[in-house]
Design goal:
Elements (H helix, E strand, L loop, with lengths): L8 H20 L4 E8 L4 E2 L3 E9 L3 E7 L1 H14 L14 H26 L3 E3 L3 E4 L6 E2 L7 E9 L5 E9 L13 H16 L3
Antiparallel strand pairs: 1-8, 2-7, 3-4, 3-5, 3-6, 4-9, 8-9
Helix pairs in contact: 1-3
Length: 206
């Protein structure tokens, strides 16, 4: 079904992109923004240097993956902790440190919470999510996550930090459409019949 009011993966993706940029900008005071172009891809993958993913279910099923380069992860990690008052000399120096993964996991949690609220408001459906998982990957490793989707669609969007470091957000979800319901208007004949019934009831003193 294709109407101007039918909504699908693009609307979910837009909510996701808005959540990623909003949460990261609020948390890090960085200038994170995303590309106006979206890629249609065959499947989602966890890629170096840090791959994060979360599964969701409920009104529809899907998978969100965020793949950070080492530079992007370190920029967001550093800005986040500096905003919290942590001293520069107390920060981790490499993206492989556990502290970096912990912070990226916390940011992923905030993103998922925000996008869940947006989807509930915009598409009037509820979703639940798994605990986000983080993996530090080397340059030779690409992992697939089995999302158990029956008829999957997948998209990828490029994001940029304030220092122009790139990371990627990927979304895979069932091929579903959200179509607003409308109340049917009464036909002229139905209205006339209703008027006749009301007139009859009135004449009977009812």
């Amino acid at each position: 079904m294709t109407t101007s009011q039918t909504q699908g993966i693009e609307e979910v993706l837009l909510n996701l992109c808005d959540s990623v940029s909003f949460v990261l900008n609020e948390a890090t005071k960085d200038r994170v923004h995303y590309s106006a172009m979206v890629q249609c891809i065959q499947k989602t993958s966890l890629r170096p240097d840090i791959g994060c993913f979360v599964l969701f279910d409920g009104g529809f099923s899907g998978l969100v993956v965020i793949n950070f380069s080492a530079d992007a992860a370190m920029e967001l990690y550093s800005n986040y902790l500096l905003q919290m008052g942590i001293a520069q000399n107390e920060l981790a120096q490499t993206h492989t440190a556990n502290d970096v993964s912990d912070v990226m996991g916390e940011l992923m949690n905030q993103i998922v919470g925000d996008v869940t609220r947006r989807i509930q408001n915009d598409l009037q459906t509820c979703i639940t999510q798994s605990q986000p998982k983080m993996l530090v990957l080397n340059k030779q490793v690409v992992l697939q996550v089995d999302s158990n989707l029956d008829d999957p669609q997948a998209r990828r969007v490029s994001f940029y930090t304030g220092n122009h470091h790139v990371f990627y957000v990927e979304l895979a979800m069932d091929n579903v459409a959200f179509v607003p319901l409308k109340k049917r208007k009464k036909t002229k004949e139905a209205k006339e019949k209703n008027d006749e019934n009301e007139a009859l009831l009135k004449s009977l003193g009812m």
